[in-house]
Write a structure and sequence with these properties.
Layout lengths: L1 H85 L8 H10 L5 E5 L4 E5 L3 H4 L2 H14 L3 E2 L8 E5 L3 H22 L7 E4 L6 E5 L9 H14 L3 E5 L3 E7 L3 H67 L4 H23 L7 E4 H12 L7 E8 L4 E4 L1 H18 L4 E10 L2 E8 L27 H12 L3 E8 L3 E8 L2
Parallel strand pairs: 10-12
Antiparallel strand pairs: 1-2, 1-4, 3-4, 5-6, 5-8, 7-8, 9-11, 12-13, 13-15, 14-15
Helix pairs in contact: 1-2, 1-5, 1-7, 7-8, 9-10, 10-11
């Protein structure tokens, strides 16, 4: 039992160490992941704040452009008023200021058309272009889309209208504003933090731009809605207002680096576990091969050592018979000598190819029981029953008898020399079943498998190899099965052997 107990202690110790290593690995990996997550979260907060500030800047720029547009309208009205002053019949009017207003307009394109669309005059428009009537018509249509023309004051010309376009500076600023909006959207999506981003319109359904997002998300509305819900669950959605585009929403989530870091410890431990499992299987194979060699060497050496005294005892038997010793006594000695020959034969077969011969399993069981009955306590009651007809199976009779002896002797020890041993045999289409039941101490459920391991024993003496040899003989040599079918502490145990036809 000491060997088995030491083995169990080592297993518990190794398990504790493994749990400690796994715990430390998970804790440290999660600590690193959490640190990086916090740093990235700070980057996201800075990025989010920058997005909102740039959106405010864009909106502020739009406000400035509105003011510029209003200023240009006022300039156009002042220009008309100046024209009215110049064309006035009042000789006391100050023409100097009016002329200055008229000639100070060097940026706002203007043209005067009559009610029929005939060009009556122009300002700040290239002369080679203004001569082309198609250009005048297209410019008139473009201006009307932006604003209504101003009616020329009475006295300057009847039913004439002033068409003015945005100034050159204002047009350039509008292009700059559009570039600013486009760059704002692009830089928001392609962000320095590599954060997955989706920008939608006010409906939260139409995608304006996206970045660092798996394109499979956009294959269906359901997948997109699910993704947006996931992103909104991680971080608060950023709401922005863009000039002429209205309200927009920015959804974002943890980067792929953070997601990978979350699963890295698990993947790492799985790889380590696979490596350790493969290493264990390799070393276990080598260990089993080495154990097999030890088993074979020990068994053959035992058979060899038993051979010499056995030959000597047989010679002494012949001498005693010649001297006329009581034949009944010699008969019992002869049985024991035969038994020693069987045991020697058993050990010699370990490690060698065993030829299985069709045998009557029921007869082998009964003969083994008959041999053991007079050699155990008379307070042990044996009973052998069988159901079925076919009990012939490929068998190595010496080794199979060894199995039965080990099981029966263990049962006798478990009952402390007093109790019942019932051996029940049955056969069906799958094979032969042998149940050996005792009324001994029983075996705890958690030890039903460990009882077959080398070194397991409840006795003060012995190596704990009996059940290990039993399992090896049944499963390795006979391709059968042996296991604890039933056991209950204080009531007994049933071992089942299954053999194939």
């Amino acid at each position: 039992m000491n060997l088995y107990s030491n083995k169990q202690r080592w297993k518990i110790l190794l398990l504790v160490v493994a749990v400690f290593i796994v715990g430390i690995t998970l804790w440290y990996s999660n600590h690193i992941a959490e640190t990086i997550r916090n740093e990235e979260y700070q980057k996201i907060e800075l990025w989010s704040e920058a997005v909102q500030r740039r959106a405010k800047l864009v909106n502020y720029t739009k406000g400035l452009f509105e003011q510029l547009r209003e200023e240009e309208r006022k300039k156009a009205e002042q220009w008309l008023m100046a024209l009215q002053v110049v064309n006035s019949e009042d000789v006391n009017c100050d023409l100097t200021f009016a002329s200055k207003v008229i000639f100070s307009n060097t940026t706002i394109p203007m043209m005067i058309l009559d009610k029929d669309g005939k060009l009556m005059g122009s300002k700040n428009i290239a002369q080679d272009l203004i001569k082309d009537s198609s250009f005048v018509d297209s410019l008139k249509a473009a201006i009307i889309l932006k604003r209504e023309p101003l009616e020329i004051p009475i006295g300057f010309g009847e039913n004439q209208y002033l068409y003015y376009d945005d100034s050159f500076i204002f047009s350039e600023l509008q292009v700059t504003l559009q570039d600013l909006i486009n760059s704002f959207i692009s830089e928001t999506v392609i962000n320095s933090a590599s954060v997955p981003v989706i920008m939608t319109d006010s409906t939260r359904k139409n995608i304006i731009r996206h970045g660092n997002i798996d394109t499979t998300v956009f294959q269906s509305d359901e997948a997109l809605s699910r993704k947006l819900a996931e992103m909104e669950g991680q971080y608060e959605t950023i709401e922005i207002e863009l000039p002429d585009l209205g309200k927009h929403y920015i959804f974002h989530e943890d980067s792929n680096v953070i997601v990978q870091l979350q699963y890295y410890p698990v993947v790492q431990l799985v790889l380590i576990a696979v490596f350790l499992l493969v290493a264990y299987l390799i070393f276990s194979t080598f260990r089993k091969a080495e154990q097999n060699q030890v088993w074979v060497g020990m068994a053959k050496e035992t058979a060899h050592q038993l051979g010499t005294p056995l030959s000597s005892l047989m010679a002494w038997m012949s001498l005693l018979e010649a001297q006329g010793v009581d034949k009944s006594s010699l008969l019992e000695i002869e049985k024991d000598l035969y038994r020693l020959e069987v045991i020697t034969d058993r050990f010699s077969k370990i490690g060698s190819k065993t030829d299985l011969v069709p045998e009557r399993v029921d007869i082998a069981v009964e003969s083994t029981v008959d041999y053991l009955k007079p050699r155990v306590s008379n307070r042990v009651i044996f009973s052998v029953t069988k159901t079925g007809e076919n009990f012939i199976a490929p068998l190595s009779k010496p080794l199979f008898s060894w199995v039965l002896e080990n099981l029966i002797k263990n049962a006798v020890d478990a009952m402390e020399g007093r109790g019942n041993i019932n051996i029940q045999m049955s056969s069906d289409a799958s094979g032969i079943i042998i149940d050996i039941t005792d009324t001994g101490k029983g075996i705890l459920k958690r030890k039903h498998k460990t009882v077959f391991e080398p070194g397991y024993t409840t006795k003060k003496r012995g190596w704990g190899l009996g059940l290990s040899l039993t399992k090896r003989i049944i499963e390795f040599y006979h391709s059968g099965k042996i296991f604890v079918l039933w056991s209950e502490p204080g009531k007994g145990t049933t071992f089942r052997i299954q053999l194939k036809f």
